[in-house]
Design brief:
Chain lengths: ~190, ~250
């Protein structure tokens, strides 16, 4: 039985992947256009709305918590903690969504380039996977430990995301035809 | 009786798909697939003739043609890959590298195992076919991952070919792997599952290949050519993701 298990798993895996792929492709043919319809907008949103240090500092500042903790009744304290956690999770989800959108730009550009390097692409894919896992772990840490215990960590994440945005921005400035071609592709309906 | 029904239904559907392929010009566009289908149709007639004329040869003919069909299946997988990725040189190069590496690795392993096997027909043949199909299913999994990663759109015809062939391969791998178990306890399942999966694949092909679909793959606009420097693009993204990962790792530890 143990000898046939890998083959059964492989057959099932292929079947499941095909089902997911067929469902996605057949039911959501326009999915691709929604994800990266506005690359410039995603970049602006990240740089100026989600990731400025002032925004991150305010969101994760202990000052508000200390103030509530000192004088407010327990019910208010719990309500504050609940709402701040929800806000932080929303911020994290939106940051991740916008960053994923920018990564999609890379993939859409890379798929059409003749001089692509498979080993670099593979490494990049792994790093992107690590980024997504890291985001998920951070989300869990916020859920379990609360938003104020991961303040330093979030500041690091926001800083690195800012760097990434700046790099994408520089890239678009030095390769204006790239942004244009991505826009042309993103407006095409399949 | 049921086997005869499946056989005739399969032959009729194969004939129908081939006829539509010739009538609509799809045969020329997807030669790799229609060549495979023609082989399968001819193979089933040869088997029928041998079964009635020389029944003692049947087992050998069945398994040798089955293994040959599995080998021709690689042409289908390769054809889907090259045809669907032809407008995307980057994704195509990535796919070629991955598929070649996986293919060479797995086929070497399968060859070494088959060489050392002490099994005799039909068990040895079933084992070889199972391994051949398993390699194909791994290649198909890799292809699906590449399609998902690079968001490669496929037109309805290619979708149909991939869906039908993938379904057949998926079931074949499982059935061939559990051959001994099925023959011992569930002979009915062994006799009908793989042919039924093939019949289902033929229905999918009939539906998706009835008429030619427009090439859904968009060509990059001539007004906005992509003349990117890949090295710059990759190094930017790589460096920044490395930093991001470092920060997130610290975050998880803190």
């Amino acid at each position: 039985m143990s000898a046939i298990a890998p083959f059964l798993v492989l057959g099932l895996l292929l079947g499941v992947l095909l089902a997911i792929w067929a469902r996605r492709r057949l039911e959501l043919p326009g999915l691709e256009t929604k994800d990266v319809s506005d690359p410039d907008g995603a970049l602006e949103f990240l740089r100026f709305e989600l990731l400025p240090p002032a925004t991150v500092d305010t969101l994760f500042s202990r000052d508000d918590w200390d103030f509530v903790h000192r004088g407010a009744p327990g019910r208010i304290e719990r309500l504050f903690l609940h709402e701040r956690t929800a806000l932080v999770l929303l911020w994290l989800a939106e940051t991740r969504r916008q960053m994923s959108g920018l990564m999609k730009l890379h993939r859409r550009a890379a798929r059409s380039l003749k001089d692509i390097r498979p080993e670099t692409e593979a490494r990049l894919a792994l790093r992107y996977a690590a980024f997504l896992i890291g985001c998920e772990l951070l989300r869990l840490a916020v859920l379990l430990g609360g938003p104020f215990r991961v303040r330093t960590a979030v500041a690091h994440s926001a800083s690195s995301a800012r760097d990434l945005c700046a790099a994408f921005g520089r890239f678009f400035e030095t390769h204006p035809h790239h942004a244009a071609s991505v826009k042309v592709l993103s407006q095409t309906r399949f | 009786m049921e086997q005869h029904v499946l056989w005739w239904a399969g032959s009729l559907l194969e004939g129908l798909v081939l006829w539509r392929g010739v009538a609509t010009g799809l045969f020329k566009r997807y030669t790799f697939f229609y060549f495979y289908l023609t082989y399968v149709l001819l193979q089933s007639w040869v088997r029928l003739l041998v079964f009635h004329g020389k029944p003692e040869w049947y087992s050998h003919v069945y398994w040798s043609t089955q293994i040959l069909g599995g080998v021709f299946g690689y042409a289908v997988v390769w054809g889907i890959c090259t045809h669907s990725l032809s407008p995307y040189p980057g994704a195509a190069r990535m796919a070629r590298s991955l598929l070649t590496a996986v293919f060479v690795l797995l086929i070497t392993r399968v060859g070494v195992v088959a060489w050392g096997s002490e099994l005799v027909l039909p068990a040895a043949a079933a084992e070889i076919e199972r391994d051949v199909r398993a390699v194909q299913s791994i290649l198909l999994v890799v292809m699906l991952l590449i399609y998902a990663y690079y968001r490669v759109p496929l037109n309805a015809n290619l979708k149909g070919i991939l869906l039908g062939y993938g379904l057949y391969i998926s079931v074949s791998v499982m059935v061939l792997a559990s051959r001994a178990l099925l023959l011992e306890n569930h002979g009915f399942v062994w006799r009908y599952l793989q042919p039924s999966a093939y019949a289902a694949a033929l229905c999918i092909w009939c539906s998706f290949l009835w008429s030619p679909a427009a090439e859904a793959i968009p060509q990059p606009s001539a007004k906005a050519p992509i003349e990117l420097d890949y090295a710059a693009l990759a190094s930017n993204t790589t460096r920044l993701f490395a930093r991001l990962r470092l920060y997130l790792a610290r975050a998880v530890r803190s």
